[in-house]
Amino acid sequence: MTEALNPIEWKNDALVLLDQTKLPNDIVYEEFTTVESVWDAIVTMKVRGAPAIGVAAAYGVYLAVRNAETDLVEVVQKSAAYLATSRPTAVNLFWALDRMTAVKAPDATYKEALLAEAKAIHKEDEEINRNIGENLLTLLADGMGILTHCNAGALATSKYGTATAPMYLAKEKGWDFKVYADETRPRLQGSTLTALELSRAGIDVTVITDNMAAMVMSQGKVQAVIVGCDRVAANGDTANKIGTLGVSILAKHYNIPFYVAAPTPTIDLNTPTGTQIPIEERHKSEVIEGFGKLTAPADVNVYNPAFDVTPHEHITAIVTEKGIVRAPFSENLEKLFR
Ligand SMILES: CSC[C@H]1O[C@H](OP(=O)(O)O)[C@H](O)[C@@H]1O
């Protein structure tokens, strides 16, 4: 059995991250011991995926304070504010930082309490993944074709992933199903990450370019779409990797159920609708030099939003670890937090 890829680990009193920018060619684990290097790892996407970003940032706060001798609370507040500037869209980052800054303990045990909180956030994410997988599995059937976009997999989280969680559980049950993974331009998380982790698990995965999704659906190869999310607004509008909106339109056109796998830390009731979700824009080089060579004139204008927003009307169900949420989303999402 191929050794599991572990995107995040707290080991030997350091944060160890799998450098996802090097996949699928090289499996390189890197040790992080400063908050600055964790900030850089999030920005450069060595670690990526909403839940994974939150877990990494939580450890980053501890790394910032562990050698401090005075003003520990101030150091925690400042490091959280600094990490919050890394990437704007995934609400898990801010949720995790809020958890860390909310830690209260006497100076003598404060650092220990912070590390314990980071480890708790990490462990909870593993449990969330499995529950989401079990809830999604109730919506799927043996023999299905499933399309997914980007990587909402084990590499975006702490264990099973979210959108991929039911795929691993279905494999454990011996189900026969096919996964179509959009390569997901420009950073290609689908082909470099989803295809890697699913094929290593022995799951039948086929990479398609993003512009093939319509044809694959038109051929009746897809019976369900499952995607992850970076922020679900209070009305159910969902920010996810750029291209997800288009997939949702196609799914609606071909009458294919469109499921969002959503850990509750990714649901942000403080953001009323999708129009208020901050959308990260990234460097033009990701679009015109993504394959290691220039694929457009160097001085051309490039628009590179890393996410888009799928309106709640396109979503069949938002599947969380607490249960399956259907429309009316405003009302039913709020019930999760009562
Ligand atoms: C399980 S959430 C993963 C989510 O995060 C990805 O974005 P990025 O790779 O830029 O961090 C993508 O939107 C996935 O759906």
Residue-averaged pLDDT? 97
Uncertain runs with pLDDT below 50, 5 residues or more?
A: none
How would you characterize the largest beta sheet? 7 strands, mixed
Estimate the helix proportion, in percent.
Answer: 25-40%
Strand order of the largest sheet: 6-5-4-7-10-13-14
How do the SSEs run, as a string of H and E?
EEEHHHHHEHEHEHEEEHEEHEEEH
What multimeric state do the chains show? single chain
User: In terms of structural class, how would the helical and strand content be classed?
Assistant: alpha/beta
Spatial separation of the terminal alpha carbons: 43 Å
Please provide a written account of the structure.
This protein is an alpha/beta fold and 338 residues long. 37% of the residues lie in helices and 16% in strands. The chain has 11 helices and 14 strands. The strands form 3 sheets. Strands 6-5-4-7-10-13-14 form a 7-stranded mixed beta sheet, with helices on both faces. It has a 4-stranded mixed beta sheet with strand order 11-8-9-12, covered by helices on one side. A 3-stranded antiparallel beta sheet has the order 1-2-3, with helices on one face. The protein is globular. Pathway: Amino-acid biosynthesis; L-methionine biosynthesis via salvage pathway; L-methionine from S-methyl-5-thio-alpha-D-ribose 1-phosphate: step 1/6.
Concise overview:
Belongs to the EIF-2B alpha/beta/delta subunits family. MtnA subfamily. This protein is α/β, with parallel strands linked by helices.
Secondary structure layout plus pairing:
Blueprint: E1 8-11, E2 14-18, E3 29-32, H1 35-43, H2 50-65, H3 72-83, H4 91-101, H5 107-137, E4 145-149, H6 165-172, E5 178-182, H7 189-200, E6 205-208, H8 213-218, E7 224-227, E8 231-233, E9 238-241, H9 244-253, E10 258-261, E11 267-268, H10 285-288, E12 307-310, E13 317-320, E14 323-325, H11 329-335
Parallel strand pairs: 4-5, 4-7, 5-6, 7-10, 8-11, 10-13
Antiparallel strand pairs: 1-2, 2-3, 8-9, 9-12, 13-14
Helix pairs in contact: 1-2, 2-3, 2-4, 2-5, 3-4, 5-6
The structure holds the ligand CSC[C@H]1O[C@H](OP(=O)(O)O)[C@H](O)[C@@H]1O.
The ligand CSC[C@H]1O[C@H](OP(=O)(O)O)[C@H](O)[C@@H]1O is lined by residues 48-51, 150, 152, 156-157, 162, 189, 227-228, 230, 240-241, 306.
Active site: 230
Function: Catalyzes the interconversion of methylthioribose-1-phosphate (MTR-1-P) into methylthioribulose-1-phosphate (MTRu-1-P).
InterPro entries: IF-2B-related (IPR000649), IF-M1Pi (IPR005251), IF_2B-like_C (IPR042529), Initiation_fac_2B_a/b/d (IPR011559), M1Pi_N (IPR027363), NagB/RpiA_transferase-like (IPR037171)
